[in-house]
Amino acid sequence: MTSAATMNATATPLPAEWRDFLALTKPRVMTLVVFTGLAGMIAAPGAIHPVLGFTAILCIALGAGAAGALNQWYEADLDAKMKRTQGRPLPAGRMDRQSALHFGVGLAAFSVILMFFALNLAAAAILTVSILFYVFIYTIWLKRRTAQNIVIGGAAGAFPPLIGWAAATGDVATLPVLLFALIFLWTPPHFWALALFVKTDYANAGVPMLPVVAGERVTRVQIGIYTVPMIAAAIAPWALGLVGSIYGWTAIALNLVFAAFALQVALRQSQPNDTMQPEKRLFKFSILYLFLMFGAVIADRWMA
């Protein structure tokens, strides 16, 4: 039997509203992208003109929105099969795929060109790489082919601190690279926690997420394993003297909590009719964790 969402996706789309184009950009995800990019820019030495700083953050937001739109353009068939994504503009039949494609490509091109002319080549180049990586490496190549999609594809969401730093300085240094590593290593435990309690969705869509192809036990162990280098990357900026004590003590406290939640998930066994509360708690805290970690970067720079 064909689902209602699939029928909507293949029917003649209704005229799209501005809300649908906004939904294509994945605004919730964009919030975290913009914040980590802002932290990278503020952490950079020297000062950037407020207008240029705003422009850089706008470009990061537009680039992230473009990547989200192109992701939804390519994955419309998968989104139609998953409960949590069936309401998106394409599977819900509120927009045609061509409009989404043109919107995403146009947004990507505009963000990169504006970054180049308003800021510098380095920031524009890294922004370009981040968009292309998310679309071609993660979305098109990895997502449907390997359970390591999140591990490798996590780099796509880790670029904003590098972009923000490069926008302010025109180059890249050790601190933004470590912040990149933090997001890169944070992504697997964050996303696998989500994948554990939406496993059925991914299975129905045929997406080879780790819980689907390797089972819950392996996924839990991997969450625990990846938490260790993530914590090391989080503490490294303080250990290397690149940030001050505000960041350092914040990092220690947050990582102790993260480690406790991750260990609980790693060691537990699923039960019949399990509501996956520890996994949901880890997923929700992981979002707060990253906001607070990068908030500490900003606070440390301002209080220095």
Task: Describe how the helices and strands are arranged.
Elements: H1 4-10, H2 18-24, H3 27-43, H4 50-74, H5 76-79, H6 97-118, H7 121-142, H8 149-153, H9 160-169, H10 174-197, H11 199-205, H12 210-213, H13 216-239, H14 245-267, H15 277-303
Describe the structure.
- The termini are far apart.
- The model is unreliable at 1-11 (pLDDT under 50).
- Helix 3 (27-43) packs parallel to helix 15, helix 4 (50-74) packs antiparallel against helix 6 and helix 9 packs antiparallel against helix 10.
- With 304 residues, this protein is mainly alpha-helical.
- It is flat, with a radius of gyration of 20 Å.
- The chain has 15 helices and no strands.
- It has helices spanning 4-10, 18-24, 27-43, 50-74, 76-79, 97-118, 121-142, 149-153, 160-169, 174-197, 199-205, 210-213, 216-239, 245-267, 277-303.
- It has 2 domains: 18-172, UbiA prenyltransferase (Tetracycline Repressor, domain 2, Orthogonal Bundle); 173-304, Four Helix Bundle (Hemerythrin (Met), subunit A), CATH 1.20.120.
- This is Protoheme IX farnesyltransferase.
- Pathway: Porphyrin-containing compound metabolism; heme O biosynthesis; heme O from protoheme: step 1/1.
- It catalyses: heme b + (2E,6E)-farnesyl diphosphate + H2O = Fe(II)-heme o + diphosphate.
- It holds the Pfam family UbiA.
- It is found in: Cell membrane.
